[in-house]
Amino acid sequence: MRVLGVDPGLTRCGVGVVEGVAGRPLTMRGVGVVRTPADAELGHRLVAIERGIEQWLDEHSPEVLAVERVFSQHNVRTVMGTAQASAVAMLCASRRGIPVALHTPSEVKAAVTGSGRADKAQVGAMVTRLLRLDAPPKPADAADALALAICHIWRAPAQNRLQRAVAQNRLQRAAALHAARTPAAKTPAAKTPAAKSPAAKSPTAQKGRTA
Questions:
Q1: Per-residue DSSP letter, 107
Q2: What pLDDT, on a 0 to 100 scale, did the predictor assign at position 178?
């Protein structure tokens, strides 16, 4: 599996490509940052991010795009910029039919370091170790993008099993509900033989008619 991780941001949008499967050594295929000038208009910055993401998609042809799920922070302006950059990345992937997966920062930290409260230095150190790099990727946004890709590769098998189990459960519940609402087939009532007239039952009466 080849995953493009995206750590969204308006000024620095981290990108990193990791290839491999869960349970085996992973390989980094590329890492970098898409930058936009802070004094540029918002629309121009989003276009620059789109072009940068498109270049990475063209060059590496990932099977999945893993993006950090935006969550509420005290700095609303920062959240808005992160959400906008995230939406651009998701749009680029979806336009090509590439699946998009969202992971929260705590999920990524827990997957890579074992602790959902790890700091950026710990994440960078573990990414360096897991990918057998000479030094932690700089800036931290690039390391976070690789961590997102690693997280998805490791979590994807469990998520797929869970999704299949949920889908199977829904099918079973739907089938049970349908069976409960469908009226049972009615069994045709057994026909009772018509009662014979007394004349038909009496042999004497039969002889009297023939005489």
A1: H
A2: 79
pLDDT digits (tens, 9 = 90+) for 23-41: 999 999 999 999 999 999 9
State how far the Cα of 184 lies from the Cα of 197, in Å rounded to an integer. 38
In angstroms, the CA 21 to CA 150 distance is 9
This prediction's pTM:
0.75
Residues with catalytic annotation?
A: 7, 68, 141
* AA identity, residue 97: G
Residues 6+ apart with CB under 8 A from 134: 128
Count the helix, strand and coil residues of the chain and give each as a percent rounded to the nearest 5: 55, 15, 30
Residues composing the chain: 211
Q: How far apart are CA 85 and CA 65, in angstroms?
A: 14
- Measure the CA dihedral 182/188/189/194, to 10°: 160
